[in-house]
Amino acid sequence: MQQVIRETIAMEAPGACLIGTLSSVTEPRLLVLINGATGVKAAFYRPFADWLAAERQAAVLTWDYRDFGASGSPHASRATMTDWAIHDATAARRWLEARHPGLPLWVIGHSLGGMAMAFQDGTDAIARIITVAAGHGHVTDHPWPFQGFAWMLWYLLGPISATALGYLPGRRLRLGNDLPKGVFWQWRRWLLDRGALPADPALGGIRRPGFSGPLTLVALTDDVMIPPDAVWKMASWHPAAQVTRRALDPAAFGLSGIGHVQAFAPRCSAVWPALIAP
Question: Is pLDDT above 80 for 109?
Fold first, then answer.
């Protein structure tokens, strides 16, 4: 297995500078862009990125959205989900393509990072898309008792704290990390509208004809935030794609639980081959 070298890089996006890490082997044969979930810093994905670089002889880019993680502070930010999902994700993809032109490119999108792919331009050049815990969700799709927390978040805890503080205190609310207030309000709109992301005019609508290559939708059976049924709905956003649906049960991998976030954690490394399987 080849040695993996990490390199910290900076990328220009419209109105922002994004900081990321490239995990790569000496002569990569594949490019992989990892687009993270809302509230999850890029550093969380780096053990998975290192494994993938060595496993597939790849150059794997992990990066943080603007005003989040290594790319800045959310506390006085004007960033929105549109900035993260469209402008930042596209800039990161373009940077990686320019770094190693001609190599096939995979995009692995976790939650937001997967949902955003239907709204980006230029996805026809991508060789494969894998989404993990990403889907067309509404607050009523959450099972109870988590649904009760979700109603409280969207109508009470989130609005009050974002208005009072100028950002969403994600750490205090057990939602990962603090988020820009504009990200919170747009995220809230998606989860309270049954039309979800396609109904948000700020995203510009689903791109047509869109991605036409292999698309793997990965769901986790114990995910209370984006349950499998919500994951499968997202296939309609990619009508030209060759869709594979894959539901992963923690027990099948000797795990007590995976949930919405932990598929990329080192403790869940047993599931990693299944995430990227054909």
Answer: yes
